[in-house]
Every structure is written in structure tokens, then in C-alpha cells.
Design a protein that fits this description.
- There is one protein chain.
- The protein is α+β, with helices and mostly antiparallel strands.
- The chain folds into 2 domains: 73-124 and 197-307, Beta Barrel (L,D-transpeptidase catalytic domain-like), CATH 2.40.440; 126-192, no CATH class.
- It has 9 helices and 16 strands.
- The strands form 3 sheets. Strands 1, 2, 3, 4, 5, 9, 10, 11, 12, 13 and 14 form an 11-stranded mixed beta sheet that branches.
- A hairpin with a 4-residue loop joins strand 1 (76-81) and strand 2 (86-91).
- Helix 3 (33-46) runs antiparallel to helix 4.
- The two termini are 24 Å apart.
Length: 312
């Protein structure tokens, strides 16, 4: 994670050893440009009688969050700001790509963490997570025997499409409903095969993490027209996935545009590795100073602002 841990015992040990306070605290000084942009904006608005106390408090909450961000977000990185429903790719403090996103529902929140983008998958298959299989796919299959065909899904013993296919009517699916004490372990895997109508769309961006969260295309384009975009199971859906694909392939791989277009158009699954590091950070910033210096204020969609205590 990008959040910095303050080691109080180490600070005291170094003080007793005679080190200067400036030297000791140097690693904890924020280097993230957004911290200084928001601090500058706060100092301007603090003296303005037209600025509400609510806005000032919100800015202080986010200054606290920004202070905890480690130096080392990177010169180049992708930042998903969850309450803003936006992802930006930053290059030397300049935004080079920005687009709307859909994030996790309140009960299935997009987690706050950092990981490095490792590869991009074009024409992905979707390995349905066991929880979604139990709670959503199996109930629909029991009601509609044609459900899997309609959704272009197949069943395997693993997420490998090269393994033998299993007929849905050879299994008693009632035994696998939901994760209850008497339900069986989920020994079957549902896979949506690659297609133009795949639920993950045509491309996904993988930055391995313990949350199994990634960025991906989506069939539900209409959701990007909504002001509130908390609809996913935790993953980040992109409004302009091809724009992201083009930027990544041109700046973080050695592949040509022709190669990438060929893989994309083939409708066959292709994994494209990166030749350069690109960290991906998810953040929860309910205030943000944009590239024009304008203060943006966002709703506290997960209730984090209410839970956080101020230190100043």
C-alpha cells in the first residue's frame, strides 16, 4: 500500500542518538503534488467567509490522507480516485489520460491499495468468482436451463478452457447454492468465453493483488452517464478502455500499434506484458485540486469521512 506507517519508537530512538528532528522526519514529509495543491487551496479558502465549515473540514480530512501517502507514488502512475469515479494516468505531475470509472457498491467496496500493472489482457475470458457463481449464476441457471448459453458461459473443473467441458444438467446445483454450512465446496468453475459481448468487455488491466481487483472494459456503457457510479463487485470499470490500452501499449510496451490492433481484432485471448513499471493506486479523496487549480468536492460514498478523526 502507498500509506506510510509512522514508527514512533524508531523516531524516539533516533532522537536519543542525537539525530536532528529535520533528518528524522524527512522520510515522512509528503512529496505528493496534490498535498501541496490542496494545502495552498485550503489556506486561500480558510480566510474566505463564503467558504463553508463543512468544505474546510473535508479539505482537512483529505490533507490528513495525503500526508500519509509515501514519497514514491512514482513519477508515472495511475490513480483511481474512488469517490470521484475517475482514473487518471499521471506523467511527471501532468495528467495524460483521464476517464470516468464505475467502482464497487457500498457492500462490495473498491479497496484502497497499491500494486504494479503487470500485463494487459485483450479479449479476456471471465472466470466467475465462486461467490458470484453461488449467489447469482446458479439461481439463474436453476430458473432458466438456457442461461449459460445465453450468457456464453461454460463449466469446467478449473478456469482453464482447455480442460473437459461439463454439462450443466449433470450436476445437482441446489447443493451449491450460497455459502451456507450445508452447501458443498465449489468444485465447478463457470467461465464466460471471449467475445464482443463478454462481461469484462474487450480488455482488462491486471495489477495482481490480494483483493482480485483489476480495471476492465464493460458492456454496461449507460452507467457512465449516471452521477453515482457504485455498481461493481469491487473492480474498476473503464469508460474508455481502448484509450487506456493505446496509452499503455505506446508508452509501457515495445509492441507496435499494428500488433496490438491485430491482437485486439482477433477475438482471441492475448496477454501483453509491460516493459516499464506503472504503479496503480486506488485512493479515497473527497476533495481534489484539478489541473486548472479548481477545487473539486465529492460525496463520501463509503462513509469514510464520517469515521475519520481530525488531527488539526
Amino acid at each position: 500500500t502507498y500509506l506510510q506507517e509512522v514508527n514512533e519508537s524508531d523516531i524516539m530512538r533516533r532522537l536519543r542518538a542525537g539525530q536532528s528532528i529535520e533528518q528524522i522526519l524527512k522520510p515522512y514529509v509528503p512529496e505528493y503534488a496534490q498535498f501541496f495543491d490542496l494545502k495552498k487551496r485550503y489556506m486561500l479558502l480558510e480566510g474566505d467567509q463564503n467558504t463553508s465549515k463543512k468544505t474546510l473540514r473535508k479539505m482537512r480530512l483529505n490533507l490528513e490522507r495525503l500526508k500519509l501517502m509515501k514519497p514514491g507514488l512514482g513519477d508515472n502512475y495511475a490513480l483511481v480516485n474512488v469517490p470521484e469515479y475517475t482514473v487518471r494516468v499521471i506523467d511527471s505531475n501532468a495528467t495524460v489520460v483521464a476517464m470516468a470509472v464505475v467502482v464497487g457498491k457500498r457492500k462490495m467496496q473498491t479497496p484502497i491499495f497499491s500494486a504494479n500493472l503487470q500485463y494487459v489482457t485483450m479479449n479476456p475470458q471471465w472466470g466467475v468468482p465462486d461467490s458470484i457463481a453461488r449467489n447469482e449464476v446458479i439461481p439463474k441457471l436453476l430458473k432458466n436451463p438456457n442461461y449459460l448459453t445465453e450468457k456464453r458461459m461454460v463449466i469446467r473443473k478449473s478456469y482453464d478452457l482447455n480442460t473437459p467441458e461439463i454439462s450443466h444438467d449433470s450436476v445437482d446445483w441446489n447443493a451449491y447454492l450460497k455459502e451456507e454450512k450445508d452447501s458443498k465446496d465449489m468444485t465447478y468453475k463457470f467461465i464466460e468465453v471471449p467475445s464482443k459481448k463478454n462481461g469484462l468487455g474487450r480488455v482488462k488491466f491486471i495489477f495482481p493483488n490480494k483483493h482480485s481487483v483489476y480495471m476492465h472494459d464493460t458492456q454496461s456503457k449507460s452507467l457512465f452517464k449516471r452521477k453515482v457510479r457504485t455498481f461493481s463487485h469491487g473492480c474498476v470499470r473503464l469508460a474508455k478502455p481502448v484509450v487506456m490500452l493505446e496509452h499503455i501499449s505506446q508508452n509501457y510496451t515495445t509492441n507496435t500499434n499494428e500488433e496490438v490492433k491485430g491482437w485486439y481484432d482477433s477475438l482471441k485471448t492475448k496477454h501483453m506484458g509491460l516493459s516499464k513499471k506503472l504503479p496503480v493506486h486506488t485512493a479515497y479523496l473527497t476533495t481534489y485540486v484539478d489541473e486548472c487549480g479548481k477545487l473539486l468536492v465529492f460525496n463520501d460514498i463509503y462513509g469514510f469521512d464520517k469515521l475519520q478523526k481530525l488531527n488539526f
